Amino acid sequence: MYAIPLAAITPQDRPLVGNKGAALGELARAGVSVAPGFVLTTLAFQHFMAELDVDGAIGRLLAALDPDDLAAVSAITTTIRQKIATTALPPQVMLALEHAHLTLTGADRLLALAVRRSTHTSFAGLMDKHLAVRGIESVSRSVRSCWASLYSNESVTYRLRLGPTEHEVAMGVVIQRMVAAVRSGVMLTRGPSTALAIHGSWGLGSWILDDEVTPDEFVIDKLTRTVTGRTVARKLIQHLPQTDAGGVRKEAVPVLRQSAPCLTDAQILSLAEVGLQIERHFEVPQYIEWAIDAQRTPGLYILRSRPDT
Predict the structure, then answer these.
(1) Distance CA 205, CA 223 (A)
(2) Over the stretch 36-77, which tens digit does the pLDDT of each residue have?
(3) Which residues of 130-151 are buried (b: 16+ CB within 10 A; e: fewer)?
(4) CA distance 25 to 256
(5) Angle ∠(60,66,69) on CA atoms, nearest 5
(6) Which of 44, 46, 144, 208 has its CA 20 to 30 A from that of 84?
(7) 219-239 core/surface letters (b: 16 or more CB in 10 A; e: else)
């Protein structure tokens, strides 16, 4: 149970795969298009930490910290993160990761992947993600980086003040094929009156956390399925995958596309239908991250869906 394919995840697996992994598995079962992948489970994290911290010293050190003593917190957490980053995965965990990676990538061992955290609680400091990761060694490093992020200064001080305790902390890691996104964005199914809102721009969705991009906005009436509002922004920057080195690069949007809408009306309405399908499935308004693959038709993938709070 160290690695579970997204398509095989059931509601009972939530403790093993975290909220993000569980939501993606549920979307896949509901027939929504999600990129193929798997979750390295919380059991893998717990096995790794048990071997890393045999005598429980990490938990004792953290429990003794004063969350207001930021210098002491930083000193301890830096050491923990470095230890996680430089410690090899246990053989059983590495074997499960290698098998799941081979199943996902097939003959293309350097297929670009996205590696993202999946926890049961929204901790501070867990906003970034690893994109265009290629090769099993890079995937392994990204997994350990995800785990290490649980010991950022922000996450540890959050837990010291609000919980959970260290022995309750665990993380799943979602590993999926990268979507070759020519356009991406977010969709909020909770809008004023009967409206749904879509925000989008060119390239990968990593711009969502970056203030450099002002996205287009489209408003759709849920009842009539018509576009009732549109604001087309001047989009100067796009995020694209690094072909060889992995990660993301920023480059200028071609001039002719800067002030052009990133979505056609047909794409807007297709997105809205998927958003409403997801909202009906979960029975609460949703915050949805989406991407449209340049190499597929229509190529719409849902990257994440969570309650819109």
Answers:
(1) 28
(2) 999 999 999 999 999 999 988 998 999 899 999 999 999 999
(3) bbbbbebebbbbbbbbbbbbbb
(4) 39
(5) 125
(6) 208
(7) bbbbeeeebeeeeebebebbb
Specify which residues 175 forms β-bridges with.
38, 115
Contact 11, 22 (CB under 8 A): yes
Give pLDDT tens digits for 254-285: 999 999 999 999 999 999 999 999 999 999 99
C-alpha dist (Å) from residue 75 to 82, 149, 169, 289: 11, 15, 20, 36
Q: For residue 228, what are its two tokens?
A: 């009732």
Whether the Cβ atoms of residue 147 and residue 15 lie closer than 8 Å to each other: no
Coil, helix or strand at residue 185: strand
Q: Which two tokens stand for residue 35?
A: 């990129």
Question: Do residues 168 and 204 touch, judged by C-beta distance below 8 A?
Answer: no
How many Cβ atoms sit within 10 Å of the Cβ of residue 243?
10
Three-class secondary structure assignment of 137-173: HHHHHHHHHHHHHHHCHHHHHHHHHHCCCHHHCCCEE
Query: DSSP secondary structure string, 213-243?
Result: ---EEEEEETTTTEEEEEE-----EEEEE-T
Both tokens assigned to 280 = 């009906």
